[in-house]
Amino acid sequence: MELLIREFSFHQLNANLLWPGTFAFAEWLVQHHSWIEGRRCLELGSGTGALAIFLKKSFNLDITTSDYDDQEIEENIAHNCQANGITPVLPHVKHSWGETFPSAEPDWDLIIASDILLYVKQYPNLIKSLSFLLKSYKPKDDKAIPSVGNDQSSGMCMGLAVPAFLMSWRRRIGKEDESLFFTGCENAGLEVKHIGSRVYFIKPRENMVATTGSIDD
Questions:
Q1: InterPro entries, alphabetically (predicted)?
Q2: Rg (CA), the chain
Q3: Which residues are 113's β-sheet partners?
Q4: What are the boundaries of each domain within the chain?
Q5: pTM to 2 decimals?
Q6: Which of 44-48, 153-157, 168-172 has the highest mean pLDDT?
């Protein structure tokens, strides 16, 4: 599939470019498509919106984009949606990690992200937002969601929690810095599993009781 993606010259948080890791994660998701089909999805750090646009066109995935609270990012994602025949454009949430999330009862049962661990100082804020989204999840309706993905191409069978976070991380930083994020997730009551090809599966720890309330709690 060929997409028309507009990039712009500069953004303070690197949301202006289509990073190579996006292609690798897109390929991985195609190989494991049964794990995402039928899910209601939110992408963190959408940047240009390329991954979300690809998934919408490939699988008609119910997906919402999200990135730093910045009008330029939102407008560029909308432009890229229209350039690739997606009308109306994908819904978008402007959210700076760590700040109060716009929805008090998030209803996305699957969160995805690609290469969002570049800024180590933002890890606590990212973990705060991620914990809120996973622990405050409220189903939108009573639609049944498959709890197990059986992928014939890989021969793997894996239970995907509802909700869950799938993250691809292919950019290289120091191991000590990288471990700060995963340790921080575990300290926040999240379970982290590396499921191969530098893709990580994160969900609330099973003995954690779901909570509701503001991200500022």
A1: Methyltransf_16, SAM-dependent_MTases_sf
A2: 16
A3: 167
A4: 20-46+98-204
A5: 0.86
A6: 44-48
